[in-house]
Amino acid sequence: MGEFIKGLFGGSKPTPSQAPGIEDDFADYASVPSPSPIYDPSASSSTAASFSDSATLPTPVPYTKWYRVWERASPSDFAAEAVIIPFIFVLAALHIWGRRKNKRKADTWSAVHAPILDREFASVGFGANGKARSEGGEGVVLKEKAANEFTTYASGRQNVAFVDFKIKLLKRYNPLSLVIETIISFFFESMRAPKESLEATSYAFDGREKDLVPVRSKAELDAKESRFKGLPSSGYDACVWAVVHKEQMKTLRDERYDVSLTATKDHQNLPQWASVMSESAEITETLLTKELAGAVEKAGDAFEYLIVTDQPIDKPTKLNETHPSKRIILSLRLPSSTHPTAYAPTLPLFELFIRLPDTLVATAHFRPEVTRKVRTIREEEMKKLKKADEGEKAEERRLEAEKKKKEIRDTRLKGLSAEEQRKFLEKEREKGQKKQEKRMSRKA
Q1: Where are the alpha helices (DSSP H) in 147-212?
Q2: Using an 8 Å Cβ cutoff, are 154 and 162 in contact?
Q3: Across 193-197, 221-225, 414-418, which has the greatest mean pLDDT?
Q4: Contact, 104 vs 338, CB < 8 A?
Q5: pLDDT above 90: percentage of residues in the chain
Q6: Does pTM top 0.85 for this prediction?
Q7: Which of 291, 322, 295, 294 is nearest to 309 (CA)?
Q8: Distance of CA 154 to the CA centre of its chain
Q9: CB of 163 within 8 A of CB of 200?
Q10: 8 A C-beta contact, residue 16 and residue 33
Q11: Residues 386 and 319 sit within 8 Å (Cβ to Cβ)
C-alpha cells in the first residue's frame, strides 16, 4: 500500500531488476542494457553524400515485355482492326465521292438551265441582286438542302407568280441506304425505286397580282396598281389536264387526288408510251399543241408527266381545303451523264413549260358547256365533303346532347333519397326494356 502511494506522489520507480512479472528464464535478457549509438562524423558525411547521389541519378527500369510491343503481340492480334480500318476509309471515300458527284450533277443542270431562266425571269436563284451566275451575279442558282436534294427559285414574270425547282439525286454518299431502298422497291410497290429527277412547279397569278406581289410602302402600292392596271387579265378557266408517261399513270392516280378526277385517253399526236388525262376532250384539243407533243416525244424516257391543275394533291377532308390553286407541274428524269449535251432532249420541253402559263392565259377559255362539266365534277366532290361534314357535326351534337342529359340525370339522382333513387332506376330500367322490345318487334 505504501509503494502505491509513493507512486502516486512521484515516489521512486521500481528498477528493472525489481520489475514484477519477469520470470527466471528471461532474467538474463531482462538485465542486458540496450546499446547506445556511437557518433562517427565521417560516417555521417558519407551517408549524406550517398543520399544526394541517389537523388540525382535515375533509378534503373526493370525489364518488362509491356514496353516491347513486338515481344508481347503478334499480327494476328490486330485481325479485327485490319478489317475495320480499311472499311472505314472506303466508306469515307465513297461518301466524299458521292457528295462531289451529286454537286457536279447539280452544277451541270444549273449551267445548262440558268441562261433560260435568266432570259425568262427577273429574279433567279438566291442572292442579293437576284441574278444567276451566268449573268455575273453574286448569288447562287441552286441551294443544297441535303446531299441529294437541291432547290432553286425564280420569279418576276408576267402571268407567273413564282416557280419552284426541286432536284432529287441518288444517295451516292450512302451506298448502304441506296442498296436497301433498291431492294425494298422490288418487293413493295408502295416503295419507289431510287431515281434522279427534276420537279418544277409554276404557280399562276390567276388575276391576283395585287394580292401576291409584296409592297413596302404606299408609293410602291400606287406604282403597282398603275403598272397592273393596263395589263390584260392573267386568269384562265380552271381544269385538270395532264400528259403522262404510261409507266407513271398508276402511281399518279394512287398518289394524287387531282389526277384521279380525270379520264385517260390516248392521242394521235403523242407517242405510244404517253397518254392524256383530262376532264374534257375539248381541253385536250386546246392545250395539246403539236409543238408540245413534239417536245414530249423528243424528251423520250426522260419525260414523266406534265400536269395543269387547280385541285390539291391530297384528297381534301374539309370544305376549306377545296380552295383552288392553279399551278403547272413538270417532272423529268435527269440523265446519268454529267455532260451538258445530255440535257439537249429535254430543253425544248423545259422552255415550253416556262411559257405554258402564257398559252393558258391566251387559250384556256372554254365553252360554257365544258366549264359547266368541270364545275359539276368539283361540286359533286364538295357535296360529298359537305355531307360528311354534316354527318360529323350531327354526331357531335348527338354526343353533346347525351352528355348534357347524363349530367342532368346525375344531378337529379344526387338530390334523391336512397328509396327514391331505387324507384328512379327501376323506372329507367323498365323504359330501356320497352325500347329494346320495340326494336326487336320492328326488326321482326
Answers
A1: 175-187, 209-212
A2: yes
A3: 193-197
A4: yes
A5: 35
A6: no
A7: 322
A8: 23
A9: yes
A10: no
A11: yes
- From residue 270, give the alpha-carbon distance in Å to each of 89, 279, 343: 50, 18, 21
Question: Minimum mean pLDDT among 41-50, 234-243, 371-380: which range?
Answer: 41-50
The set of cell numbers assigned to 8 is 502516486
Q: Are 292 and 310 in contact (CB under 8 A)?
A: no
- In this structure, what are the phi and psi dihedrals at residue 187, rounded to the nearest 5 degrees? -100, -25
What's the whole-number mean pLDDT along residues 21-47? 49
Question: Interhelix angle for 418-443 vs 368-414, to 10°?
Answer: 150
d(CA 300, CA 317): 37
Cell numbers linked to 144:
443544297
Q: Are 164 and 153 in contact (CB under 8 A)?
A: yes
Task: Extract the C-alpha cell encoding 90.
Answer: 472506303
pLDDT confidence tier of residue 332, bands split at 50, 70 and 90: very high
Q: Mapping DSSP to helix (H, G, I), strand (E, B) and coil, where does residue 191 land?
A: coil
What are the cell numbers at 430?
Answer: 323498365
Distance of alpha carbon 406 from alpha carbon 47, whole angstroms = 105
pLDDT band with cut points at 50, 70 and 90 for residue 225: low
Q: Which of 39-53, 199-213, 302-316, 326-340 has the lowest mean pLDDT?
A: 39-53
C-alpha grid cell, residue 54: 541517389
Question: Whole-angstrom Cα distance, residue 101 to residue 338?
Answer: 9
DSSP string spanning 286-329?
HH--HHHHHHHHHHGGGEEEEEEE-S-SSPPSSGGGG----EEE
The type of residue at 266 is D
| pLDDT of 64 strictly over 80 | no
Q: What is the pLDDT of residues 282-311, one digit of tens each?
A: 999 999 999 999 999 999 999 999 999 999
Q: What percent of the chain has pLDDT over 70?
A: 76
The three three-digit cell numbers of residue 209, written as one number = 397580282
Residue with cell 370544305: 319
